[in-house]
Amino acid sequence: MIPASLKAWYERQSERDQRVLRWGGVIVVILVILGVLVPLQRGLVTARSHLAEQQADLVWMRSMAPALAAAGPGPAATPTNESLVVLIDRTARESGLAQALTGSQPSGNGAMRVQLENADFNLLIGWLSRLGSQLGVRVENASVTANGSAGVVNATILLQR
Description:
The chain is of the alpha+beta class. It has four helices and four strands. The chain starts with a helix and ends with a strand.
């Protein structure tokens, strides 16, 4: 297990040096355990917890799929003569997102980039659903990030008619 030359070197050391080497070895093993294995174990526990949450979310989504499919696509999109800017502003206010709507910028091809901060996630999803199903506005791209509070998000959304 230990090469003969290393064993011979150890045996040539004084009793005091041998004791220091033994305790040093014990300390190195403890440091490896505390510095590497314990954080890995914590990360594994966190990952397993996150996986369990994700699996529970998937089960819930799958249970909701039949109900959503049975509800149908909703009313057909009704075109309006409002510009996309006015439509976004009006519907955001009607959906309770007036305070969260912090800006909108025109993007290429008649699209609008909308910025929301501290928006209620449920209201945001309802607003986007309404835009798509009733008003014919589709989400081209969306970036939604948690804000720290439960159910509150920041979002940047690219909307297109």
